[in-house]
Design a protein that fits this description.
Strand order of the largest sheet: 1-2
Radius of gyration: 21 Å
Number of helices: 19
């Protein structure tokens, strides 16, 4: 469980800068409303496009030793192409994430994809009531929290979302009903807003995760208790990375905030990489559905978008490495041991003790999405809901037969947007680890 400090646990909005160097963004100011935030500069994307060549030599940052039998291979993605059949999902995730952070071609493609309206527009109910936290809501008084709906809304997206919105009783997550209010994530990129969402995270960890005791009892690194809790923690770490990236333009201040929020506990970085690998595995499972998706009514726009998405799947090093191929099958194999209908009993007197199964993950996943209605920062809420819906869609694709069925537009958009969020967070963490190591050596 992440124990990030209470201050500024925002699920919030500014593009996580990517580069080969170390970059942080605008100086912190709780009430600021900079033109950078409102218009979303894309300098990092240009940097990536300029150097997105498969032959580019990449110097990976040094890292502190971690106790694991596979660490030597994980340190260098070039030597971690295949960790073997005995590797667990957390071990595979380490290798997958390190390699993904070095693949500037894939990262650039993801940023270009998420900038398109198909992937950036979402209808979100910012007036929805908080159903979990009692008392008066802690309002956000900072300008950076405010978001405005786009005008006009592309009618074809609105009509499509309304047509595709159905109801599934035991869904992994239920996104907001489409209305006339759509918000563009590109207009309000994730970053530091000054909002304190610590009460929301506290409730999530104490009430919606399975907890340490359940994970220890499960005693399976590939088990679904462990997967869900690490996915939550990994998304939290990703959000912290986006906040830190937007915290200051001074490397030392960024590094200090990074240490305070993330680097003080190795599990946070590990869970970030784990969440990235889970969502990437979900994207792999979605390939058939993605290829059948229609991205735009305009034939030219649809073709160009399809080419970008296909380019991501064609990056075999990123999408089809031996390590990432193993993730989904291992998770399904572990979940198969916990049948949807199984009941734990006391063998002595046949007393029914507890029903168990992956349905518990679906139940908690729905609750997490609803919990984001308790976030009073508009920018934080739209990013948090989209990000968790992306994680929930990935889990749905991994644990069910959803990969053989069409995905709705919001599922496709959130899935790839969340992968981009996690990928840039992993990359940012790599850069901050380098800065921290340099400071420690100085």
């Amino acid at each position: 469980q992440l124990c990030l400090p209470a201050a500024s646990h925002s699920v919030s909005g500014r593009f996580l800068q990517l580069s080969f160097g170390t970059m942080c963004s605008a100086a912190p100011s709780p009430a600021r409303e900079s033109s950078d935030r409102r218009h979303g500069r894309r300098l990092p994307q240009l940097l990536l496009l300029a150097c997105a060549t498969r032959g580019a030599a990449l110097v990976l940052p040094a890292r502190a030793p971690v106790t694991t039998r596979l660490r030597a291979a994980v340190l260098d993605p070039l030597n971690a192409e295949d960790l073997g059949d005995e590797a667990t999902v957390p071990e595979l995730a380490e290798a997958v994430a390190h390699k993904g952070a070095a693949d500037v071609t894939a990262l650039s493609l993801l940023e270009e994809i998420r900038s398109l309206k198909f992937f950036s527009l979402y209808s979100i109910d910012l007036l929805a009531n908080c159903a979990y936290l009692g008392g008066a809501p802690e309002e956000c008084e900072f300008d950076a929290c405010e978001v405005l709906p786009v005008d006009p809304v592309p009618l074809h997206l609105m009509e499509r979302d309304r047509k595709e919105r159905g109801f599934e009783l035991d869904a992994w997550a239920r996104f907001d009903l489409p209305s006339e209010d759509y918000y563009d994530l590109e207009e309000y990129p994730e970053g530091y807003t000054g909002y304190d969402g610590s009460s929301v995270w506290k409730f999530l960890y104490e009430n919606l995760t399975f907890g340490k005791e359940a994970i220890e009892e499960e005693n399976d690194p590939n088990g679904w208790h462990n997967v869900f809790d690490r996915a939550v923690s990994g998304l939290h770490a990703s959000i912290a990375c986006h906040v830190v990236d937007d915290y200051s333009d001074d490397d030392d201040e960024c590094a200090a905030e990074y240490k305070r929020r993330i680097a003080c506990d190795p599990e946070r970085l590990s869970n970030l990489r784990f969440a990235f690998a889970i969502v990437l595995a979900g994207v792999r499972e979605s390939k058939q559905a993605m290829q059948k998706s229609k991205f735009d009514e305009d034939a030219a726009v649809d073709a160009s978008t399809r080419e970008l998405v296909q380019g991501l799947f064609d990056d075999h090093s990123f999408m089809d490495g031996e390590n990432i191929k193993r993730v989904a099958p291992l998770l399904r194999a572990a979940a198969a041991q916990a049948s949807e209908c199984s009941v734990l009993t006391n063998e002595d007197d046949d007393e029914w003790l507890e029903e168990t199964g992956v349905w518990q993950v679906r139940q908690r996943s729905r609750a997490v999405l609803r919990l984001f209605d308790c976030v009073q920062c508009g920018a934080c809420r739209i990013h948090g809901k989209v990000a968790w819906f992306g994680v929930a869609t990935a889990l749905k694709l991994i644990y069910s037969d959803a990969s053989t069925r069409p995905l709705c537009r919001v599922e496709v958009a959130a899935l790839l947007t969340t992968l981009a969020k996690l990928a840039t967070a992993v990359r940012f963490a790599e850069e901050m680890e380098e800065i921290c190591c340099e400071q420690a050596a100085a």
